[in-house]
Specification:
Oligomer: single chain
Shape: globular
Strand content: under 5%
Number of strands: 3
C-alpha cells in the first residue's frame, strides 16, 4: 500500500508541473491556472528544464511510491530531459503559436465555466501574447531553426488575426462581452502579424532532423519500448509488406489488378461537399457507437458525448486529417469533439475535391471508429474516471493512438466493415500507418529526403500528393509521433494475447489503466 509520504512526493510533482505549465494545466481542467500563458523567456525554459532534472533524480531515488504512477512520471521526465538537448523552444516558432491557439480555442469549445469567466481569462491571456512573442523572437536560434518549421509557423500565424479578433469573439453570446474580447484581441493580433513579418525574414540554417541517437533514446526511455529507431524502421517494412499482400488479395476480388487502382476507385465515391461530408461522419459515428455497445466490446461510461464538428480554422493549414479533442481529464466533463478535416479558407475546388477523396465513404467507418467509438473518445472518456491524477495528466501517443488503431481491428474482427470496400479501406489505414513508421524513422535518421518521403507516401500509401505533402511536413515537425499508431496497436495486441480472458474485460482494463508507455501498460495488466 502506498504511504502518505509516498503520495506527498507524487503530489508535490503534480503541483509543480501544473504551476510550471499553466496552459497545459488549464487544458487538463485544473482550476486556478487559466489567466496566464506562463513564462516563455529563456530563463523560464531553462528553469523548467533544470527542475525536470531534479524531479527525475528524486523520483528515481524513491522506490516506495506506487510503481505504475512512479514509472509514468519517470518516463515523462526522462523524455523531457532527453529532449532538452534538442530544444523545441529554440527551433520551432510554431511552438508559441500553438500555445496561443490552444489556450484560446479549447476553453470556448468545452465551456466548463460561465461565459463571463471564460472571457475574463481569455482577456488576461491575450494581454500576455505580445510579451510571449517577444520572448519567442529572442529565443529562436538561426542555427537550430529550420526553414520547414518556420514555413509551417508562417502559414499558421497568418490565420491568427481572424482567429483572435473574429472567430473566438463570435462564440461569445453576450454582446458586451463579445465586444470587450474583440477589443482585447487587437493588440494580440498585431503581435501575431509582427511575428509573421519577423519569421518571413528570419534566416534559418538548422535542421528538422532529430537524428537516430535521440530518436532511439525517446523510444526506449519515454515510450519504454525495447527497441530503437533502426528496429522500428524494419518493423514498419515488415508490416507494410504483409498488408500490401493482403490488400492485393482483396483488390483482386474486387476486380482490380493493383490495390492502388482499387483505392483510386474507392475514393471516387465521396460526399459532394465538405458540409455533406460532415453530415455523413455524424451518422457513421453514431453507427459505430451503437455497434460497439450492442456487441459488448467495451463498457460505456456514464455521461459520455462525442460531438462531430468541422476542424477549427487555425488547424486547417497544418492538419489535413481528422483529429479529436478530449474532455479535460481533471474535470467532470465527458464531452469530446471529433473534428472533421476541412480545407483552409481559400482552398481551390481541386484541393477540396482531394480532401473529400481522402475521406471517401468507404473510409469513414474506420475513421469514425478511430476518432470516436471505441477509439479516442471512448478511451479518453473512460480514462477520466481513473483515480490517479498522474495517469489523467500524462499519456503517450504510443498508447492513445495505438489503442485507436487496435480497436479498428477489433471492429473488423466483429464484422463492422461489412463490404469489401470498407474492408479494403480498413487495411489501407493500417498500411498507411506502416508507411508512417518507415518514413518517420528514415527522415529523422537521415535516410530519406522530404521529396522521397512525399513520393513514398503518395505511392506506397493511398494519399493524394497534396495530402502526402501535409503529412510529411507533420512528420518533420513532430518526430516519433507518426510511428505511434501501428507500433502501439501491435504492442496492445501482444499484451492482449498474453492476457487471455474475454475481450471486453481486457479492453476495459487496459483502457482504464491510462495512456501508459507500452512497457508500463504491460506491467499494469499482467503483473497484477
Amino acid at each position: 500500500m502506498t504511504s502518505v509520504a509516498d503520495m506527498t512526493l507524487l503530489d508535490e510533482f503534480v503541483s509543480w508541473y501544473l504551476d510550471a505549465h499553466p496552459v497545459r494545466a488549464a487544458l487538463l481542467g485544473a482550476e486556478g491556472h487559466d489567466h496566464t500563458l506562463g513564462d516563455f523567456t529563456e530563463a523560464g525554459h531553462i528553469r523548467r528544464e533544470r527542475a525536470a532534472e531534479i524531479w527525475l533524480e528524486r523520483l528515481e531515488a524513491d522506490t516506495t511510491c506506487d510503481e505504475i504512477d512512479r514509472g509514468l512520471a519517470i518516463s515523462h521526465l526522462r523524455g523531457s530531459v532527453a529532449s532538452a538537448s534538442w530544444p523545441e523552444w529554440r527551433r520551432d516558432p510554431g511552438t508559441y503559436l500553438n500555445v496561443i491557439f490552444g489556450s484560446m480555442f479549447t476553453p470556448f469549445q468545452q465551456r466548463l465555466r460561465p461565459e463571463a469567466e471564460l472571457v475574463s481569462a481569455a482577456i488576461s491571456r491575450l494581454g500576455e501574447v505580445p510579451g510571449m512573442l517577444a520572448a519567442a523572437r529572442a529565443n529562436l536560434a538561426p542555427d537550430l531553426a529550420s526553414d520547414l518549421l518556420v514555413g509551417r509557423a508562417i502559414d499558421q500565424g497568418r490565420t491568427a488575426r481572424r482567429f483572435l479578433t473574429e472567430t473566438i469573439p463570435s462564440t461569445v453570446e453576450d454582446e458586451s462581452l463579445r465586444a470587450e474580447l474583440a477589443k482585447a484581441a487587437e493588440p494580440a493580433a498585431e503581435a501575431c502579424d509582427a511575428y509573421v513579418e519577423f519569421l518571413e525574414t528570419f534566416e534559418a540554417g538548422g535542421s528538422w532532423r532529430m537524428g537516430e541517437r535521440l530518436y532511439t533514446t525517446l523510444l526506449r526511455e519515454r515510450e519504454m519500448l525495447d527497441y530503437g529507431a533502426a528496429e522500428l524502421h524494419e518493423l514498419g517494412r515488415t508490416e507494410w509488406a504483409k498488408l500490401d499482400a493482403r490488400m492485393s488479395e482483396v483488390s483482386a476480388a474486387l476486380g482490380h489488378e493493383r490495390w492502388r487502382e482499387a483505392m483510386d476507385a474507392l475514393m471516387d465515391d465521396h460526399a459532394p461537399t465538405l458540409e455533406a461530408m460532415l453530415t455523413e461522419y455524424r451518422a457513421e459515428t453514431e453507427r459505430a457507437r451503437v455497434f460497439a455497445r450492442e456487441r459488448g466490446l467495451v463498457t460505456f461510461p456514464e455521461g459520455e458525448e462525442c460531438l462531430v464538428e468541422p476542424s477549427p480554422e487555425f488547424q486547417r493549414p497544418i492538419i489535413a486529417v481528422a483529429n479529436y479533442l478530449a474532455p479535460p481529464p481533471l474535470s467532470t466533463s465527458r464531452q469530446g469533439v471529433f473534428f472533421v478535416p476541412y480545407t483552409p479558407d481559400g482552398a481551390s475546388e481541386e484541393q477540396i475535391r482531394q480532401r473529400l477523396r481522402t475521406n471517401a465513404r468507404a473510409q469513414m467507418p474506420s475513421i469514425a471508429v478511430h476518432e470516436a467509438y471505441p477509439g479516442h473518445h471512448w478511451h479518453l472518456a473512460v480514462l477520466s474516471d481513473n483515480p490517479s491524477t498522474l495517469r489523467k495528466m500524462f499519456r503517450t501517443p504510443y498508447f492513445v493512438e495505438g489503442w485507436a488503431l487496435y480497436v479498428e481491428k477489433v471492429m473488423q474482427e466483429h464484422g463492422y466493415y461489412d463490404t469489401p470496400w470498407t474492408e479494403l479501406a480498413h487495411l489501407d489505414f493500417r498500411l498507411f500507418r506502416a508507411a508512417r513508421i518507415i518514413v518517420d524513422t528514415a527522415l529523422h535518421c537521415g535516410d530519406m529526403t522530404i521529396e522521397q518521403a512525399e513520393d513514398f507516401m503518395a505511392t506506397k500509401a493511398s494519399l493524394t500528393p497534396g495530402t502526402a505533402r501535409g503529412e510529411v511536413g507533420r512528420y518533420c515537425a513532430w518526430p516519433t509521433q507518426a510511428p505511434s499508431y501501428l507500433t502501439g496497436a501491435l504492442e496492445i495486441e501482444r499484451i492482449r494475447a498474453d492476457f487471455g480472458g474475454d475481450l471486453r474485460t481486457f479492453n476495459d482494463r487496459i483502457a482504464r489503466s491510462g495512456g501508459l508507455p507500452l512497457g508500463l501498460a504491460r506491467r499494469a495488466l499482467l503483473d497484477t
